[in-house]
Amino acid sequence: MEHTQITVERCGDDDEIVLITLNRPEKLNAWTPTMADEQAHAIAAANVDPDIGAIVMTGAGRGFCAGADMEATFKSRIDGVDPGRDTAGGMGGMPRGLDWVALLRASKPIVCAVNGAAVGIGVTMCLPADQIVASTNAKFGMGFIKMGLVPELASTRLLTQRVGIGRASDLMLSGRLVPAADAHRIGLVDDLVEPDALVATAIATAASYAANPDLQLRMTKQLLTDNAVEADLGVVQQREMEMLSRCWTSAEHAEAVNAFLEKRTPSFRPSR
Question: Percent of the chain at pLDDT above 70?
Fold first, then answer.
């Protein structure tokens, strides 16, 4: 796929990280269904590349993503023109067949590096990620209510899991912007760094995940997803045990044990 609204590059000490950059800086990287298709394509490509261990997503210029492009999405739909590949038949305004939340939760580890304004879908696209790192220049806002809309992409659950129902209610019902320091204080942001250190910090975090085996990384993400609201601890343990049994017979587990006994660093990537 040709990328017109994002850029994709490899980085990290061993080129084991894919860096996806939203690339409409003149519009503060306002979101479109085309951008979503390109992001999904880049993530899917990284997921099938055995040399890639993790993904970082950031924005070009001053903003991360200032919400949906008003003309290309909302105005287009009001005028009777679907802004993408049947977004009316998709989820959260995404093109039909693109389940963004499921994609990120089933993906290799993803770190969002929020460099500036993140509004509406600029926030909700990050909530299913594994870590959110923000620049001190960033701002966050769940602006749906101000557009006569409700939140999407499972954010009514995912944001609540991060910050609690009171703070999630405040952000969603007011639609106000909050500075990065406040977003970090309430748990919306996992790490807060100076602007010049943002991408390097996100890549270092991603690299710490990429050093581990893909199979077990994705199993762990699945368990975190499936068990997040599971009330029955017996079911939680059963899911864990099913995956643990698979791990015991995996090549990755054998490599980790052998590396420990041989006093060497384990190798979980074919090119290493």
Answer: 99
Closest to 247 (Cα-Cα) out of 256, 259, 236: 256
Quick one: pLDDT at residue 271?
63
3-class SS string, 141-178:
ECHHHHHCCCCCCCHHHHHHHHHCHHHHHHHHHHCCEE
Q: Tokens 């710490």 belong to which residue?
A: 208
- For the chain, what are the domain ranges? 6-210, 214-261
Residues of the chain with confidence (pLDDT) below 50 = none
CA 102/CA 154 separation, integer angstroms: 10
Q: How many CA atoms lie within 13 A of 127 on its CB side?
A: 27
pLDDT at 84: 86
Rounded Cα–Cα distance for residues 72 and 58 (Å): 21
pTM for the model: 0.95
pLDDT mean across residues, the chain: 96
Separation between Cα atoms, residue 122 and residue 116, nearest integer Å: 10
Residue-wise burial string across 176-195, b where 16 or more C-beta atoms lie within 10 A, e elsewhere: ebbebeebbebebbbebbee
pLDDT computed for residue 85 by the predictor: 87
What would you report as the CA-atom Rg of the chain, rounded to the nearest whole angstrom?
Answer: 19
- 6-210 CATH fold: 2-enoyl-CoA Hydratase; Chain A, domain 1 (3.90.226)
Task: Centre a 10 Å sphere on the Cβ of residue 172 and count the other Cβ atoms it contains.
Answer: 18
Residue 116 — left, alpha, or beta (φ > 0 → left; ψ -120 to 50 → alpha)? beta
Q: State the DSSP code for 110.
A: E
C-alpha–C-alpha distance, residues 82 and 59, integer Å: 25
